[in-house]
Amino acid sequence: IPGRHSYAKYNNWDKIVVWTEKMMNKHPEMVSRIKIGMTVEDNPLYVLQVGKQDERKKSVFMNCGIHAREWISPAFCQWFVYQATKSYGKNKIMTKLLDQMNFYVLPVFNVDGYIWSWTQNRMWRKNRSKNPNSRCIGTDLNRNFNASWNSLPNTNNPCSDTYHGTAPESERETKAVTQFIRSHLNSIKAYITFHSYSQMLLFPYGYTSELTPNHEDLAKVAKIGTDALATHYETRYIYDPMASITYPTTGSSLDWAYDLGIKHTFAFELRDKGKFGFLLPESQIKSTCKETMLAVKFIAKYILKHAS
Amino acid sequence: IAPLRFDREKVFRVKPQDEKQANIIKDLAKTKELDFWYPDATHHVTANKMVDFRVSENNSQSIQSALEQNQMHYEILIHDLQKEIEKQFDVKEA
Fold first, then answer.
1. What is the DSSP string of A67-133?
2. A61, A170, B4, B60: most buried, per Cβ within 10 A?
3. pLDDT exceeding 90 applies to what percent of chain A?
């Protein structure tokens, strides 16, 4: 018995699995669970489809918890599903979104790493796959995508926290996600990934300082999102392409999704700016999720109206 | 296996003023184990960009001394990581 799930607390993997079942059973017309694959340690990868269950609609793919220690990220995905189901029929924007769009929500991408961060090492980042000819464990899943993979030095040491794996999509988790997205590419109009920390909203590219062809549009959406986010608690986020606002990064899911054809891809770096870093207290989960929810709603609203 | 503990481990924040200072951090990372929180790896450390990293209790004094010797401004964001880990669970079960 995994214990009681709470949106105001961090939940371990067992609680999250039970929660996915509960959401599905409680809202069968709105939530369904899709198993998209398994991890190295044989844990299931679940995507929750949230919406009025029409495959032909526009959709948004969201994932949380690529990096194990960024606990606020899975907390947000759970919050999103809860709020979406709760506010359907009550909140005008959310009702419209769920009537006309589907949200595919992967609440924990790096399941094995997340479990490890709960049980053995709170500071763990990568997944838990074994690396050939190395005693070091794990690949950084957000360096494992086929987006200019291996074009920058310093990511090919298995002992590094940003090790990119033996090949693009070498990891089971990455493969499961890319297969799912490819098979739903006709409907997916936006890809949003959630990280922590530093309060930023990033968009492509990360692997080059060149701007995307729709840079102006992405910047406009990012402004809408960050402006909306700030309205709740005046939390200020900055936004810009990943390469310019942070640093050049190869193999990221953000760039991969963009190059695949999803022209609205974003990465949130949630609270805070470093006071707590990866250890954001539970007492800040609710406010962080509330403001982020607003940003995501406004981004989705824009996508619904403008993405073809 | 007992979970890893982080007693008295520290998180430093440094903003290198130039490439020379950025290289000092990179050099420190070659000899001491630094866990980069932001940016996420040594090679991203550059001038005028803030760096947050975690160090073990054993290394924190020597890191602090190295920063001071090189007249680098720093801030200690977290003095005892283990305490912060415990403090993050600040909401009681309903």
1. STT-THHHHHHHHHHHHHHHHTTTSHHHHHHHHHEEEEEES-SSHHHHHHHHHT-TT--S---B-TT
2. A61
3. 93
